[in-house]
Amino acid sequence: MPVQISDGVGRRIAYYRSVVRPKMTQQQLADAACVALGTIRKIERGERGVTNATLEAIADALGVDSARLRTDRAAAQTRVHEALPALSAAIATYDLPEDGPVRPLRELRADVAEAAQWRLAAQYTRIVRNLPDLLPELARAYHAAPNGDRAELAGLLVHAYRSADAVAYKFGARDLSARLVDLMRWAVCEAGDPLLTAAVAYVRTETFFAARAHSAGLRALQQALDAGPVPITPQDIAARGALHMRAAVVAGRARDSSAADTHLGEARALAERVHEDVYCGTAFGPDSVRTHEVSVAVRLGGDHVGRALDVASEWRPPKELPAERRSGFYIELARAQLWSGLSDDAFESLKVARRIAPQHTREHPWIREDASTLRRLKRAESETLTNFAEWCSAT
After folding, report:
1. Average pLDDT, integer, range 57-75
2. Which residues does 223 contact at the CB level (< 8 Å), separation at least 6?
3. How far apart are CA 130 and CA 278, in angstroms?
4. Which of 16, 33, 97, 192 has the smallest count of CB within 10 Å of its CB?
C-alpha cells in the first residue's frame, strides 16, 4: 500500500492554494490535480491522509515540489536512498532482462520523455519511483525489437540511464553513477546518433569529477568535440556548445583559467548563433552560458569571484531554464557572495535555490558547508537560518 501522509500536509496545501497561489479555489485545485473535491476538502481539514501519488498530483497542480508539502523534511532524501538498490538491480541484467510485458513504443517514448523532464526539474523522487520498472522494460523491448526499431530503443535507453544517473550522482552513489555512464556509452553506440553521443560525453565527465581527474576529463571532451558534427543546425550548435561549457567547468576545477576562458569564449560564440536556449540532451544558449560563467568563476576562485557577482548584478536565470540549472546558479552565487563578505545576500541566494529545486539544493555538496559557515558568521541567532541549517542537516 502507498504510504499515507497526514500530519500537517493539509494545512500546507491550503496555504499554497490560498496564499502562494491566490484565487485558486478548492474546486480549481481538485480539477487541476484530478482529485475529487471532497477529498481535497478532507485533506485540508486534516480528516484524511493522502497517498504519495495524490500528493504528487496536488503538488503539480500547485506548481511546487511535493517535498515542500511534507512534514518530514528528510522524506525525499530517505526515499531516494532507499530506492537506489532497486535502480542498481534494474540495470544488473541489462543484457539478459527478465521476461515480462513490453508496452508499445509510443508509450515507452512518453515515459522516457517524462523522466527527462523530472531530471531537468530535479524531481528525483519521481525518477526513483518509476525507473526501476521502466529500465528492465526498455531492455526487454530493445533485445526483442526488430532491427528497424533497435536504434531508437537504444536511444531511449540512453535517455533513461541518464535520468537514473542524475539521481545516483546527486545523491552520492558514485559507483552506481559510473555503471550507468558505462551503460550510456554502450547504448549510444547502438543508437548511432552523433548528437546523443555528444550528450553522453558531457555526462561522462561526472566520472572525472568524482576522481578529480580533470586533465583526463578535458582530453575526453576534446575528443568529443573533434568527433562531433559540424555545427550547422541549432541542434548541432547546442551539442557542441554544451561540450565547451562543460570543458570550461572542468578547466575551472583544474584552476586552468586560460583553458576555461577559451572554452567559455567558444561557448559564447556558439550561443550567439542560436539566440535563445536550445535543448539537445543539455540546455544550451546565451542564458546557459551565463550560468556557466558564474560556475567557472567560483571554481577558479580568488580574483575571479568578482566575475560571478558582476554577472548576477545584471542578470538572473529566467524560468525557462531547467530548475536544476537555475538552483545551481544561486548555490554557486551564494558561495561567491559568502567569500565576498555578503553573508545576508548569500543566505537569500540559498533560499531562492531551495524554492526553485529543494531536492537538488539539499543534496548539493556545498549546501551544508555554507549553511554552517553562515550560522557561525551571524552575530545573533536567526530562527530562519537555524531552520534552513536543520533542513539541510548542517552542523
Report:
1. 72
2. 201
3. 27
4. 192
